[in-house]
């Protein structure tokens, strides 16, 4: 479900307004009684932000609507269970702020239950926070601004106590295994060797995910919470379509993405941007907006397009994500079942019940080393022409989108580029080189062949 | 700065003195699809060759087939008629080609473009058949717009035209229909279907051939051809075509997608083909693909509901209920239900304008 009906205009996404009369009734009703539509007792909140649904719900009902969607996502997808150790990716923006807040509230509740229960059978899940410092990617680094941001993040996390949460400030150059000046230099060189503006932005996103995965697995976390909301996903649906990534799209927009070592979960997937900003306003949740590198590529064009569509119809984001949700997900779009005895029985049962819905027979083996997108047959069809050179192997292993927008076009630059990539990405290439059966067979019978390869055909 | 431009800028200095392909002649244009700087002759060659490849690789035609070209007089159909008759000759496709034109009854727009098609008939030596909405349905687009205004008029025109083409094709006794839908059109349709939540259409809209199990299969040889290149071809070859936008179109929702794609093409020309590729690659379960196919109870045309969309819309027009058939179907509103009850009750009121369309066999 892309979103709950209460979060969208006219009470339902995509439903046509019936000659405007229904809307009129509601407006009249609101004026007369002025009570919350849900609890019918409190006064409705007005945010005055020109958005839809203004003045329909009271603060409590609004908050419980949004929190309810979060909780439903978490429980129905087994995102966070008592034995888990969860890392929340926090950028300082509204979406991740709300994600962090909700995860904290969930944890507080679990702690309360734990302390109240007699046998203390269900442990409280652990929560950590990760903040990625991207300043090395945009020299000259705005070090003072970043320093302030980090300090603010630290104090925010400290205030979310009890239970205590560890904060990990992750410099993005840590994907190279160190945080030195060399690593920063390598990052800059890597980004500079990408000539396409959009490709550069996307490569940075992939590196960001890699750095989060690294800090998560090195510190014993087994879940990565990302605050992506419906609106963000709607833009992603369109950018993926426009970049020729239609095959892998369904992998990116589900609630769970377990193709990574530390499965990524999206508990705010069903909440729209408007709800999130309103909630931050309502609860006084502070956010920090770092000055961003001016974006002039496709990602930006799509964002403006989606904003334009939203003006024309506020339910459009929901419709876009709902359409994409009808695409078939992959086998890794669910929390993997586990025989781990520390996982409570209830969790195991819930996982099994949920996983029954997915068709486990569809499996893909190959992933693009750069974007980790599942490869379609057509992407890997020309593998046979690439042998010998490492750079050719990299080219062959990537999806067509990364080949075009990220990889350099000529062989020598490609070699150099390959040497700059983080180890984790390159090791994927060696792993997934497809076995060339034709060459292998030919080697075996070469001495008995009378004709040349071309003539034999 | 996207890759193509970055490359030519990196090369530095003045633009290449020779065409990238033949290295003999002076380049006179930058190819919209690839940004290559090439001469006129090479452009004609790559343009025509790519279409030929699309036809051959997708096995669009069989020798001896009678093929009708949907001709509106616009650039796409004019270039299509020109190129198809040329390739038919050059590569001996063995096709019997016809021009089929539909007169929607839009004064000042359609009458002018029909003149163009009549000229094409003489210029390309292809026999022409014209069908009008007035004859088929009893309504012209002018009448329809007078009744319903400028909001959903494109829906009416599109639905009526589709059926009109099929009827015309049946009259001409052709085996196949070709239309001038180009890469930009298909990319727009993919985006529109995502924006509107139509997953079933999304799975079908990138097919180069559709309706193989319907009355007349139709195909789109221009599926990978950029609109800008079609214009360029028509311009350089000095082909005769009618170049005005339909006067009723400005409010169509498709306009959003079209503007976006134009901006996108400026940033990254290959994005148009990438959208089509995405459309082809979307993982859509086969169970969601086809709605059940039946026939319209009123006219016998192919339909997934009791009545085909054209009959539903027509009924709405005739009964003065222009919103019928627009938007999501609710209960018995979609044709069959209500109307059947009325006729059973003995109502003999039938508008003079509604025609029995069952005369042509499907």
Automatic annotation (TrEMBL), chain A:
GO biological process: protein urmylation; tRNA wobble position uridine thiolation
GO MF annotation: an example: tRNA binding
Domain of life according to the entry: Eukaryota
Biased composition (Basic and acidic residues): 14-25
Gene3D superfamilies in alphabetical order: HUPs (3.40.50.620)
Cited Pfam families: CTU2 (PF10288)
Pathway, per record: tRNA modification; 5-methoxycarbonylmethyl-2-thiouridine-tRNA biosynthesis
InterPro entries: CTU2, Rossmann-like_a/b/a_fold
Sections of the chain in a coiled coil: none
Location within or outside the cell: Cytoplasm
Keywords: Cytoplasm, tRNA processing
Gene Ontology CC entries for this record: cytosol
Disordered, as annotated region: 1-25
Sequence ranges of Low complexity compositional bias: 1-13
Assigned protein family: Belongs to the CTU2/NCS2 family.
Role: Plays a central role in 2-thiolation of mcm(5)S(2)U at tRNA wobble positions of tRNA(Lys), tRNA(Glu) and tRNA(Gln). May act by forming a heterodimer with NCS6/CTU1 that ligates sulfur from thiocarboxylated URM1 onto the uridine of tRNAs at wobble position.
PANTHER family hit by this protein: CYTOPLASMIC TRNA 2-THIOLATION PROTEIN 2
Protein name per the record: Cytoplasmic tRNA 2-thiolation protein 2
Organism annotation: Raphanus sativus
Automatic annotation (TrEMBL), chain B:
Residue ranges annotated for the Cytoplasmic tRNA 2-thiolation protein 1 C-terminal domain, each copy included: 294-324
GO BP field: protein urmylation; tRNA wobble position uridine thiolation
Compartments in which it is found: Cytoplasm
tRNA processing found in the keyword field: yes
Top-level division of the source organism's lineage: Eukaryota
Binding site for ATP: 70-72, 76, 102, 180, 185
Family label: Belongs to the TtcA family. CTU1/NCS6/ATPBD3 subfamily.
Descriptive protein name: Cytoplasmic tRNA 2-thiolation protein 1
């Amino acid at each position: 479900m892309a979103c709950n009906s209460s979060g969208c205009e006219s009470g339902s996404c995509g439903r046509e307004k019936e000659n405007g009369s229904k809307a009129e009734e509601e407006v009249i009703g609101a004026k007369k009684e002025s009570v919350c539509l849900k609890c019918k007792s409190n006064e409705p909140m007005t945010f005055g932000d020109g958005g839809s649904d203004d003045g329909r719900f009271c603060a409590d009902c609004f908050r419980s609507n949004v929190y309810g969607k979060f909780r439903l996502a978490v429980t129905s997808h087994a995102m966070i269970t008592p034995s888990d150790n969860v890392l929340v990716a926090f950028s300082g923006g509204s979406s991740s702020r709300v994600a962090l807040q909700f995860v904290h509230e969930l944890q507080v509740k679990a702690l309360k239950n734990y302390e109240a229960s007699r046998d203390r059978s269900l442990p409280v899940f652990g929560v950590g926070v990760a903040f990625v410092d991207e300043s090395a990617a945009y020299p000259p680094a705005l070090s003072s601004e970043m320093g302030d941001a980090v300090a603010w993040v630290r104090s925010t996390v400290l205030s979310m106590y009890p239970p205590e949460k560890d904060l990990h400030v992750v410099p993005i150059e840590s994907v190279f295994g160190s945080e030195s000046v060399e690593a920063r230099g390598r990052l800059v060189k890597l980004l500079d060797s990408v000539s396409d503006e959009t490709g550069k932005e996307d490569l940075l996103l992939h590196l960001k995910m890699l750095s989060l995965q690294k800090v998560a697995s090195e510190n014993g976390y087994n879940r990565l919470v990302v605050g992506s909301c419906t609106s963000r996903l709607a833009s992603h649906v369109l950018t993926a379509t426009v970049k020729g990534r239609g095959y892998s799209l369904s992998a990116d927009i589900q609630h769970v993405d377990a193709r990574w070592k530390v499965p990524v979960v999206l508990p705010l997937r069903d909440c729209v941007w408007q709800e999130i900003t309103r909630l931050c306003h309502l609860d006084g949740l502070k956010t920090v907006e770092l000055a961003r590198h001016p974006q002039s590529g496709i990602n930006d064009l799509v964002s403006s397009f989606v904003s334009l569509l939203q003006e024309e119809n506020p339910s459009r984001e929901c419709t876009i994500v709902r359409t994409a949700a009808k695409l078939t997900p992959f086998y890794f779009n669910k929390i993997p079942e586990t025989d781990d005895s520390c996982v409570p029985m209830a969790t195991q049962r819930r996982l099994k019940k949920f996983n029954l819905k997915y068709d486990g027979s569809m499996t893909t083996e190959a992933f693009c080393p750069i974007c980790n997108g599942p490869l379609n047959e057509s992407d890997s069809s020309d593998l046979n022409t690439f042998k010998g050179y490492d750079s050719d192997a990299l080219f062959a292993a990537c999806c067509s989108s990364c080949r075009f927008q990220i990889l350099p076009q000529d062989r020598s630059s490609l070699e150099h580029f390959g040497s700059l990539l983080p180890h984790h990405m390159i090791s994927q290439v060696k792993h997934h080189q497809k076995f060339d059966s034709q060459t292998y067979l030919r080697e075996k019978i070469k001495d008995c062949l009378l004709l040349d390869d071309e003539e034999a055909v | 700065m996207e890759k193509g431009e970055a490359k030519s800028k990196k090369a530095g200095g003045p633009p290449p003195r020779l065409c990238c392909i033949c290295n003999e002649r002076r380049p006179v244009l930058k190819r919209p699809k690839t940004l290559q700087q090439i001469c006129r002759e090479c452009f004609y060659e790559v343009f025509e060759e790519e279409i030929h490849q699309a036809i051959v690789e997708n096995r669009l035609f069989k020798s001896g087939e009678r093929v009708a070209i949907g001709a509106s007089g616009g650039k796409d159909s004019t270039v299509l008629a020109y190129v198809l008759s040329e390739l038919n000759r050059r590569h001996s496709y063995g096709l019997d080609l016809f021009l089929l034109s539909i007169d929607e009854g839009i004064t000042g727009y359609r009458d002018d473009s029909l003149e163009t098609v009549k000229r094409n008939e003489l210029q390309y030596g292809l026999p022409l058949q014209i069908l009008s909405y007035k004859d088929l349905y009893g309504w012209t687009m002018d009448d329809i717009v007078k009744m319903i205004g400028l909001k959903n008029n494109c829906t009416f025109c599109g639905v009526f035209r589709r059926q009109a083409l099929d009827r015309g094709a049946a009259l001409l006794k052709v085996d196949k229909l070709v239309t001038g839908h180009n890469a930009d059109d298909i990319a727009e349709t993919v985006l529109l279907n995502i924006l509107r939540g139509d997953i079933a259409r999304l799975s079908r809209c990138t097919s180069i051939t559709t309706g193989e199990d319907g009355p007349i299969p139709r195909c789109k040889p221009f599926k990978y051809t950029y609109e800008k290149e079609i214009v360029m071809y028509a311009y350089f070859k000095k082909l005769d075509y009618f170049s005005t936008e339909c006067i009723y179109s400005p409010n169509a929702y498709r306009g959003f997608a079209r503007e976006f794609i134009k901006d996108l093409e400026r940033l990254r020309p290959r994005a148009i083909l990438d959208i089509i590729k995405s459309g082809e690659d979307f993982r859509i379960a086969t169970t969601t693909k086809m709605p059940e196919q039946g026939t319209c109870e009123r006219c016998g045309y192919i339909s997934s509901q009791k009545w085909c969309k054209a009959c539903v819309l027509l009924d709405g027009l005739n009964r003065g209920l222009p919103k019928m058939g627009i938007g999501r179907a609710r209960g018995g509103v979609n044709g069959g239900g209500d109307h059947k009850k009325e006729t059973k009750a003995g109502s003999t009121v039938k508008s003079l304008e509604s025609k029995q369309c069952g005369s042509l066999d499907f």
